[in-house]
Each structure stands twice: as C-alpha cells, then as structure tokens.
Amino acid sequence: MVEAPMEYAAEWKAKVGRQVVGLLPMHFPGELAHAAGCLPVVLQDDAEPITVGQSNVFNFYCGFNRSIIDQTMRGRFDGLDAIMFGDHCVQLLGTADVIRAEKPDLPILFNQLCTTLDANWAYRETLGTFAQLWKELETLTGREVTADAVRSSIRLFNRNRTQMRSLYRMRRDGEIAISGRDMQAVVKSSMTMDREEHVDLMDQLLAGAPRVRAGSADVPVYLSGHMCHAPKPEIMDMIEESGARVVNDDLFVGWRFIHADMDETVPPLDGMARWYIEKNRRLPCPTRVIKGMDWEDYLLADVERSGAQGLVILMVKFCEPHMYFYPEIKEAFEVRGIPHLLIETEHEEMPLEALKTRVETFVEIAKRRAASKAA
C-alpha cells in the first residue's frame, strides 16, 4: 500500500462500496472523511518521471505539485470520488486549477483555512471551515455524518497516532532497530490505508519490533523539511549509510503528521478546530503564522530534546515557504554552533553519490564537535 496507494484504494472501494476521498497536505482532518464512511487517502507523489503533465505545469513548481498534475493526466486518480484542497501555497492553487480543468466532473472540496492562528477570529473561522466541509461530505456521500460517528473516528485516529508516536519514542531511545526508510513507510501507510487495518498492524509491529541495546556508534541526527511529501527512500538510506542514525524529525510524512491528537472530550467540531490551531503552536508550520513562534526556535529545542548532534535539512526544490525560513534556521544553528547540512531534493533523479560525500563530511564534523564538547 506504500508503493501502490491508488491500487489499494481501488481494492478497498470494490470491497466496501464506499467513496475514496483524496486529501492534499497538510492540515485537513481525515477523521471527518472517515466518519462519512469514506477512505481518506493523502495523495502522494510517485516515482514516475514527469511526462504528460509537463505541458500543464510550470517548471518552477515543486516536484510534488508536478507529480500530482502528471498523475492526474495519466489517470492515476480516476478512482477518486473527490479531492479536498487547500491554499497552503500558490503552487497548490495552480495544481487545483489544472485538476479542475482536466477532471471537470471530479468534486473539488476547496476549503480555505485561516493562516494567522493567533488572530481573534481564527477559531471562529476554523469552525466555519470545518462545518462547511462536514456539509460537503454529507452532500458527496448522500448520508448524514453524525457527531457520534465523528467522535468514533477521532478516537480511532488518536489511537493510531499514539501507536506511531510510541514507535518514534522507542527509536529515539534506542530500544528498537528501525531504519528511516521503514519508519517513513509506517507513517506513509497510515495516510493511505483503512485506519482500523493500520491500527491492527501497528499493534503487531509494536509487539514484534526487534529490540536492541541502547547506544550506537552512529551519529544521531535530526531531519527537517519536506512539508508535503516523503523524501525518496534512497535519500534516507544514503544518510544512514554515511554513519548517521536518525533519532527524530519534523517531516510531514513523519512526526509532523502524528504529533497532535484531537480532544475527545469536547464536541467534535470544536475538537477539530482546536487541533488545527494548537498543533501549529506545538510544531510551527511555515505556511502558518503565530506571533512570537519561530520554526528555528522549535528546531533548536527539539534537536536538543532528541539528543541529535546535527541537523539535516531536506528542502524540496522550489518550496517557497521553506526557502523563506531557511536563512533564519541557518543563522540560529550557526550561532549555537550546532552542525547543520542543507540538501535540496528534487522529484527527478538526484546525484546520491555526490550527496553521500557531503553527508559523510557532515557526520564527521558532528562527531568531532560532540567529542570536543565532551572533552
């Protein structure tokens, strides 16, 4: 299901007979689509080169947007019954326009979430946005979505996030041996699978994950970036083959996706609105604004909490929100003397051997810096 999410969705649809709803990253609650009886699928880029979609997208769009457009043109999303869109960046707006033009009969549930999260109207506006989405899903499915159904879905999704956070903690503490590639696959599969099935699989994984003794000769590092899609698994492999051990991250297909639960004790609409606003207080998003909260401050604190000895920034080429923040992150880490490395990623092939040399050098610098501090 990680490598073929749309095939999984087609099999689920044939078996269950319900709608499949595609979600664009990174803030819409899959709980609501699940409560409506749908399979929520966070749309992923794929490994195919950009071909038929090239004429419908600017070359300066990021690889994720170009891949989504290309997959649309190739018919990869023909099994979707709707797509939930937002306005997280200008490129996503362009992608929505292309999908509308190419698939005029496909419902686009376009909902604009507020971006200034400490404004006095932010909570009210967020409530209205999610209430509208609730109604649109009822129209799409032809069924009432009850508050009890949403509460049940919230409990299920919270349990699933808790399971994955437990796996993260076990990796950070050196209790289990799990690669960055495999950890990414765990989170990515939760984005595309039936949640009940994923919860059952997570129970098995947590019970059977191979235990190891704490401690490792590899240098612990922290990964940051990739706001909308997963880094290529080959990049994760290359980093670990260079002598690094990933102990934490703020990747979208990672900790960013699972770090915050919804409040189960309040009305579900309130729970979703609070989840949206508060999760960005706990882990800042470069597409959202809260006065006095900066991404670089979060990263400095989380790198220290995780025990990482260096920061590897995975910046998607042409990702404007990330590009805007990078100078502040770079300066903050230089002032603190914490080693950091910027790797620009692209959808097409990357020079992994050349990048490996850079990562190996970075790992050696981080190792020597840590030894110097301990002396």
What summary fits the major beta sheet? 4 strands, parallel
Distance between the first and last residues' Cα: 48 Å
Tally the helices.
14
**CATH class call of the domain at 5-141:** Alpha Beta
Extended strand count: 8
Description:
- It is a single chain.
- With about 375 residues, this protein is of the alpha/beta class.
- The chain has a domain at about 5-140: Rossmann fold, CATH 3.40.50.
- The protein contains 14 helices and eight strands.
- It has helices at about 5-15, 30-35, 65-75, 90-100, 120-140, 145-170, 180-190, 195-210, 235-240, 255-260, 270-280, 295-305, 320-335, 350-375, and strands at about 20-25, 40, 80-85, 110, 220-225, 245-250, 310-315, 340-345.
- A four-stranded parallel β-sheet has the order 2-1-3-4, with helices on both faces. Strands 6-5-7-8 form a four-stranded parallel β-sheet, with helices on both faces.
- Helix 6 (about 145-170) runs antiparallel to helix 7 (about 180-190), helix 6 runs parallel beside helix 8 and helix 9 (about 235-240) crosses helix 14.
- The longest helix is centred in the middle third of the chain and has 26 residues, at about 145-170.
- It starts with a helix and ends with a helix.
- The relative contact order is 0.13.
- The model has no long low-confidence stretch (mean pLDDT about 95).
